[in-house]
Amino acid sequence: MATQKTTGSSAQTIADDDLPPSQPTRPESIYHAPAAAGSTPSFTSTTSAANAKLKDFDVAEGDERGISHTDSRYSHMNRPLLLFAITAAISSINYGWIIGSINIPALVIEECAGGPQTWTHGFPSCIPMSSTLWGLVVGLTPLGAWAGSLLSGVAADRFGRKRMLMYNNASFVIGALLAGTATTIAQLAVARFVSGIGCGVAANVVSTYCSETSTVRSRGFLGGFQQLMILVGLFLSQVVSIGLSKAPLWRALFAVSAAIAIGQTLLLFFIPESPKFLVTMGRYEEAHAVLQRLRKGLDISLEYEDLVSVLESGRQDTTRAPKPSMWQVVSGNTEVDLRHLVFSALFLMLAQQWSGAKGVMFYSTEILTDRFHLTDEQAKQIPTIAQLLTLGIGGIGAVAVIIGMNILDKVGRRSVLVVSSLATSICAALIVVGSALDIGPMVATAMYVFNLVFQAGAGFIPYLCASELLPYYALGSISGLATSVNCLTLFVVSFIFPILDKALKAYLFVPFIATNLITFLFGVFMMPEAKGKSITEVVEEYQGPVRIVAGPFVRRKASASPATFSAPKVAD
Question: Which residues contact 46 (CB under 8 A, 6 or more apart)?
Fold first, then answer.
């Protein structure tokens, strides 16, 4: 069988038997030098429409090196890729553990529900505080995550994704030790903030690593790993919390985070660095070896060529102009106007936290305790019905993400987001109705379905959005900005949620009906669709100012063939 390979403006036919070995070299043949001084170099994208036929490839026999002639660019998930993603996502499990471990023992810690405060070996059985102050302590985790996310993009670009995850585990260990030995409100608050820094770094770096190691066909599945592992960690923390909610065992619950971090640090020595990062550092041979390890048994020649060509375009251009700043990208002051794509990434991260889902995760025990009218004596009999129901909410969320991950690449991002956000809004309305009518089982059921439909789409799509929509030169700064917006919004929601609960009572979820409807409208009219598309194709289709890009009255712009990627050029 022969394969037609487009190189620059010429085409040549290469027989399968004559395919060149996958060499770790810079594919200079596809770099188009500028025709005149001051012009911008460009690279032909081999993932363009001209090569769309390669998406439906046949498996050929392997060569003497055990490498088949199957084009690796559109391969499915394989075992090494899955194991490496799971290892990186242990940081996300820790993230989930930290935000979930505070939920079930909340009343024991803040209201001394297990009995009056006593001191044993220098540690108090509880740390009493007002609900407002408790909301601030809980909210300091996302505030710390906001701080961590602001620094994570630049730091990961400098040190690498793998090393950044290693360094970040120090935040988890320090935060866990401070929380496990807390004797005052201030120490517990500092512990939550330090742990939050680790959560913010993990939220950004894990999703970036999974995106940069995935193939086009596994991108949607791996894109959900971030949220899936957060929910796995949250669920596990709540399972363990049932047995560790009494004083002084809640301290051990917080300390588990340190053990998770230490265990992951050891495992990280066995996974490779992101091949994209290695290419940006000029480590071509290592990048080639890593890519072959990720695509075991497949021919990576064209994928390696694509990878280097796109990243080299930015490198070539930065010899004449500096890399665009975050503000220049946000304001569209670059050669390719990314404003709509940037807006989409930021909006989805904002909308994820305004959905009300994190309020369910953080405060479901207290909400259900109130809706089921549990007395103080009943609240002391751990596990209570509210705690057991909270456990189920966490478990169903993890199942929902797995469902969403498996349908995302079949149905498309926009369709999943539209259905998920609309269903979430309807469930929020049912929670309000159940609360107003004082029907506890209805409230609990609506909360279960709320978490199911949210986590199956609107919960995890924001985490893969930036890496699917933005070119590499903008990814580091904008993904860091998007994560910081997400974490800062989570801090606000975490802080005001108990205040809203007391002020709105049965109508607590009314604001979230509106916010989820706004997300639904965004999905219908403004959401870029990245299913089965390279980043080059996505940028070409959706570049420009913020606008309506979908719906019955929007005319689709035809894609050029072949698509070309021009290096970013900062406007004067």
Answer: 5, 6, 30, 302, 305, 306, 309, 562
Instruction: With beta carbons less than 8 A apart as the criterion, state whether 71 and 299 touch.
Output: yes
State the average pLDDT over residues 327-333. Answer: 91
Contact assessment for residue 195 and residue 101, using Cβ atoms and an 8 Å cutoff: no
pLDDT recorded at residue 68: 52
Structure tokens at 167: 């360094």
Q: E strand or H helix at 570, and its extent?
A: none
* CA nearest neighbour of 413 among 344, 475, 471: 344
Q: Is the pLDDT of residue 570 over 50?
A: no
Nearest-Å Rg of the Cα atoms of the chain is 25
Q: What is the structure's pLDDT at 54?
A: 40
Here the tokens at position 104 are: 């079930």
Closest CA to 294 of 105, 104, 534, 78: 78
**Over residues 420-439, mean pLDDT:** 95
Q: What is the mean pLDDT of residues 349-355?
A: 92
**Which among 35, 539, 48, 30 has a CA at the least distance from the CA of 334?**
539
Q: Which residue has the tokens 């320090």?
A: 174
Q: pLDDT-based confidence at 69, cuts 50/70/90?
A: low
Distance from C-alpha of 170 to C-alpha of 96, rounded to nearest angstrom = 17
Give the SS3 label for residue 507.
Answer: helix
Angle between helices 301-317 and 284-294 (to 10 degrees): 140
Instruction: Scan for tokens 């309000």, then name that residue.
Output: 432
Q: What is the pLDDT confidence band of residue 23, given thresholds at 50, 70 and 90?
A: very low
Q: Can you tell me the mean pLDDT for 220-226?
A: 77
List the one residue out of 166, 168, 137 whose CA is nearest residue 151: 168
- pTM of the shown model: 0.74
By the 8 A CB rule, do 396 and 446 touch?
Answer: no
Burial code of 147-162, b = ≥16 C-beta within 10 A, e = fewer? bbbbbbbebbbeebbb
**Angle in degrees, 0-180, between the axes of helices 250-268 and 185-213, rounded to the nearest 10:** 30
- Name the most confidently modeled range: 77-91, 235-249, 548-562: 77-91
The two structure tokens encoding residue 322: 């500096």
